[in-house]
Amino acid sequence: MTPIWRARAAYTFASLLVVGGATVAIAPQASAGGDGNKVHNCFGRYYNTDWDQRCSGSGEGYAGTYVSEAKCSLEPDNEESHYRGKGSKATYNGHDCDWSVTGVQTWFYQ
């Protein structure tokens, strides 16, 4: 290997590192992706990889168990199940997806 070839290889490698670093530096921040279906004022809200189970307005309308399932890309879905008393406005953080959340479905059981 000649010194010129080594210098060119080192320059190319360094350039790739800089481009790769710049790409990581400008990656977008997590922003609201949307809300899933509402069941008695409770629903799942999802972002890029994060999601929550929450209740809006006057809180949850009926006491019971609320199950929310986040649909994850390229991995198994994540589920949160919580018993809520009537009027609950608690927010529960769901287990993050590694790649992305594409939606959240919520069910109610008494």
UniProtKB/TrEMBL annotation:
Cleaved signal peptide residues: 1-32
* Keywords noted in UniProt: Signal
Q: Tell me the superkingdom of the source.
A: Bacteria
> What is the name of this protein?
Uncharacterized protein
